[in-house]
Design a protein that fits this description.
The chain has helices spanning 2-5, 8-20, 24-37, 42-54, 64-73, 75-113, 126-131; strands spanning 116-118, 137-140, 149-151, 155-158, 163-164, 168-170, 176-179, 182-183, 187-189. It is of the alpha/beta class and 190 residues long. The strands form three sheets. Strands 1-2-4-7 form a four-stranded parallel sheet, covered by helices on one side.
Length: 190
């Protein structure tokens, strides 16, 4: 009866398949896993991760259940704390935005100092001067500008105490910086 269950001829095909199996990929995967896990036992790694998460919290608040219970019992204090943290986060975000804007503006002013100044040619228009700007140049204006302008390329215009009264249309893909001017006319980004 045992022979019926241990038919060697039936198992021989599996024996051949096992002998031909290339375990190189499996060995590589096991070695990578061993490097990832390291020599420290998994239980110790889990304990270290839990200790890192608890991070010295008192025993009465070292689980999510205990924290949830504390929040339920101290709802008003928790709500006030969340409100204060959210308010401070919003103030921090606003401050970061202002710092970024100031940095961008001051960077533009500093960069503008090193650009080659170009003026409107005799008999030329401001539009022609803007169209003729090359990389590394800035247009310097000293008189008010009444003409309508279309700016469709990157440009730096230094216009201290100059007022633009015409319509200015700026291409949305153009990086345009106008320093020191005021605008009485319409400014459109299209």
């Amino acid at each position: 009866m045992a022979k019926e269950y241990l038919d060697y001829a039936g198992l021989k095909q599996y024996d051949e398949a096992i002998k031909q199996y290339d375990d190189t990929a499996l060995v590589t995967d096991l070695n990578e896993l061993k490097e990832l896990v390291g020599e420290t036992p998994v239980a110790d790694q889990i304990a270290a991760a839990i200790n890192g998460l608890v991070n010295g919290a008192p025993n009465s608040l070292d689980t999510l259940k205990e924290i949830a219970e504390w929040i339920n019992t101290h709802g008003d204090a928790a709500s006030n704390l969340v409100s204060v943290v959210a308010d401070q986060g919003e103030k921090l975000s606003n401050l970061e935005n202002k710092v970024d804007a100031i940095t961008a503006i001051s960077g533009t002013y500093i960069d503008a100092l090193f650009l080659t100044p170009v003026t409107v040619a005799d008999g030329g228009t401001v539009q022609d001067a803007i169209a003729g700007l090359n990389a590394g140049e800035k247009l310097v204006l000293t008189e008010d500008v009444a003409e309508d302008l279309t700016i469709n390329k990157d440009a730096v215009i230094e216009a201290e105490d100059v007022t633009f009264t015409g319509k200015i249309t700026v291409d949305q893909n153009a990086a345009v910086t106008i320093i020191g001017a005021s605008f009485a006319g319409e400014v459109v980004v299209a």
